[in-house]
Amino acid sequence: MGIPGSAATRRLDAGPSRLQEGASRSERLRLNGVANTTVSVVAETSEQGSPGWPGRAACPPAVEIGHLRKAYGALVAVDDISFSVARGEIFGILGPNGAGKTTTVECAIGLRPPDSGTIRLLGLDPLADQDKVRQIVGVQLQASSFPAKLRVGEILDMYRSFYREPADVTELVEALGLAGKRRDYYRSLSGGQRQRLSVVLALIGAPKIAVLDEMTTGLDPQARRNTWELIEKVRDRGVTIVLVTHFMEEAERLCDRVALIDSGRVVALDTPAGLAARARGGKRVRFLPSAPFGMGLLTRLPEVTAVEQDGRHVVVTGTGELVNAVILALHAAGVTAHDVQLDSSTLEDAFVRLTGRHLREEGEQS
Amino acid sequence: MSLLVIAEPKAPRAGFGKIVHNEARLAWRQPSGIIVSVGLSLLLLIIFGELPAFQVSSARLGGLSAFEIYIPILIAFVIGVLALTYLPGPLVSYREQGILRRLSTTPVPVPWVLGAQLAVQACLMVITVAILVVVSVVFFGAGAPKNTGGLVLTVTLSIAAMFAIGLAIAAGARTAGAARGIMMATFYPLMFFSGLYIPMQLLPGVLQGISHVTPLGAAVEAIQDSMLQGFPPTAPLLVLAAYAVVFGFLAKRFFRWE
Predict the structure, then answer these.
(1) B102 and A145: CB-CB below 8 Å?
(2) Parallel/antiparallel/unpaired status of strands A90-94 and A257-262
(3) Of A157, A324, B195, B253, which residue is most buried, by most CB within 10 angstroms?
């Protein structure tokens, strides 16, 4: 029962602290961003700017979502989601299937009207300011398609013509390895090529914000790395990236911050490293003792929560300064620990722990 | 991006041209629509033109030859087959495949796609009608249309009425398959009442009466009058206009982009 509440607290904690860390980058982006990328929103927002910090008021966050809620009939897809994405940030949205990631993104880009809550993209309302928002937001949808009998070049040319100041198509196409495919029909492309085309089209309008839903799903490792490099390059130009992903390595490699979403709520919001550290609530040490010893030697330590025998190895689970405590206790008993391994938890662990725990909470409630 | 740009809504107009261009490419690359409309109507026209019996004027046909009877029917056929079988299909499948959904995240208003498809189909219809009229006059000795203005007006109204019906079907159908089914169930009766299978003049008065209030029946009546007599009477033109307005409203009311 305590989890939703504590998740909210954590969210509040995590937000500001990360904004501090991210400040240097967003500050830099703000400096070169003011000249070109933010002109469009200055006019609308300047009147609500606080005199103390006019610079900040003139530059609203790239994405600001407050208490978003969206239900389809009885099914609550998004219960209560809030987060804010700084300019130039790569922001990840992670969560199990059906967590509400895609609905969140669809509401954010104005494809679906939310039931309640506020959404601002660079200070603009995606529904009320639809025309402006669509010029500055590039989208890659999970389930999108293009006419089978159009050539890649024709699709690119058409989508490019929709934007007032499109990106350099040749550069995008080369970066994603589609340069030789311009004459090919869409239907002859492989799944990975279609996916890459879809990423190119999300960036073709030189957006200020790119929203990419499962952008590297179905790509081989090399294509995936190329896509990551491109995304980093795009971000270096000041573009804000919102990434929905299942792929932990992708989130760890690319994202400045990650929101873990489960059952329509933000379970945790932190840097990938911060989330991984948080998951380390339960550490694990595995070692080969030089001699047999009584398990009570370890179980009575305050840091230890469990001790298991795994063949000749011993696996100790616990918290705090677990390794030191275990080694010292063994040493005092004249036992040496060989082959010591400390499980370093990853974002993947955080994902499993945080969402897993949350899911169990849900089960108890129902 | 500048403040000036912000003041202008929506996407660059060049975008519409690109969509039309791509829709035209698709029509050309999936040529079943062109083959059926242009090819089939022209083939039938040539066959009818070559049949000696079709050139004989008949009292049962009101003093006209079967060939003269069939020119307006083939024109109505072209408009009907394109509007009912080749317009809603792609639109519904665009919706099904998420093509419209993807487009709706761009600055382009989704109705532009619909506009582009209508433009391409209308071009195809007008070109085919022109070919049919020219071929029948030049090669088969039909008289030049008596009232070209009336013919243009009638063809325009017929296209509008049939587009409206086709779009209303696309609006109501949930899947491309369902759309095809409804279309076929609509197309054959409408073609019957245009006189494609048996000219209306040979059928009982009741059926002729029904034919006058069906869109393609009214179209045939008005086209025939413009070609042989002069400006068509008001009744069939009003029937066509009514179909355009009523079904246009239904299509607009029930059309779903997703």
Answers:
(1) yes
(2) parallel
(3) B195
What distance in Å separates the CA atoms of residue A104 and residue A231, rounded to the nearest whole number?
21
Q: A165: nearest CA in chain B?
A: B1
Contact assessment for residue A31 and residue A237, using Cβ atoms and an 8 Å cutoff: no
CATH architecture of A281-343: 2-Layer Sandwich (3.30)
Task: Specify the DSSP class assigned to residue A333.
Answer: T
pLDDT digit string, tens, across residues A235-263: 998 899 999 987 777 888 899 999 988 88
Provide the residue type at A185 as one letter: Y
State the virtual CA torsion across B161, B163, B168, B171 in degrees, nearest 10: -170
Query: How much of chain A is in helix, strand and coil states, percent to nearest 5?
Result: 45, 25, 30
**Single-letter code of the amino acid located at B172:** G
Beta bridge partners of A310: A313
Residue B112 CB: number of other CB atoms within 10 A?
A: 20
Of A285, A288, A251, which Cα lies nearest the Cα of A268? A251
**Would strands A209-213 and A283-289 be described as parallel, antiparallel, or unpaired?**
unpaired
Instruction: Tell me how far apart the alpha carbons of residues B92 and B165 are, in angstroms, rounded to a whole number.
Output: 14
- Look at residue A185 and tell me whether its pLDDT is greater than 80: yes
A205 contacts B22? CB cut-off 8 A: no
Chain A contacts to B (CB-CB under 8 A): 36-37, 39-40, 43, 109, 111, 131-132, 134-137, 139, 141, 143-147, 149-150, 154-155, 157-159, 161-165, 201, 205
Backbone torsion region of residue A309, taken as left when φ is above 0, otherwise alpha when ψ lies between -120 and 50, otherwise beta? beta
Can you count the helices (H) and strands (E) in chain A?
Answer: 14, 13
**Which site among B2, B6, B101, B257 would you substitute to test the A interface, given the most A Cβ atoms closer than 10 Å to its Cβ?**
B6
CA A35 to chain CA mean position, Å: 28
Answer for the pair B55, B139: CB distance below 8 angstroms, yes or no. no
Say which residues have a Cβ less than 8 Å from residue A148's Cβ, sequence separation at least 6.
Answer: A185, A186, A187
Sorted by sequence, the CB contacts under 8 Å of residue B183 that are 6+ apart come out as: B84, B85, B88, B89, B166, B169
pLDDT in tens, A274-319: 777 666 556 778 899 998 888 888 888 888 877 888 888 888 877 7
Task: Choose among B2, B99, B105: nearest Cβ to A147.
Answer: B99
Q: Provide the 3-class DSSP secondary structure of residue B11.
A: coil
Angle at A223 between CA A218 and CA A227, to 5 degrees: 100
Sequence spans of domains, chain A: 2-274, 281-343
ipTM of the complex: 0.84
CB B134 within 8 A of CB B216: no
For residue B97, count other CB atoms closer than 10 A to its CB. Answer: 17
Q: State whether residue B12 is helix, strand or coil.
A: coil
pLDDT in tens, A151-179: 999 999 999 999 988 999 999 999 888 99
CB atoms within 10 A of CB B124: 19
Question: What class, spelled out in words, does domain A2-274 have in CATH?
Answer: alpha beta
pLDDT for residue B154: 95
Ranges of H-type helices in chain B? 3-7, 14-29, 32-34, 41-50, 66-81, 88-96, 99-103, 111-140, 148-172, 176-194, 205-212, 215-228, 234-254
Choose among A39, A135, A162: nearest Cβ to B3.
A39
Amino acid at A105: V
Which of A246, A217, A62 is closest to A138 using CA atoms? A62
Q: What is the DSSP letter of B214?
A: S
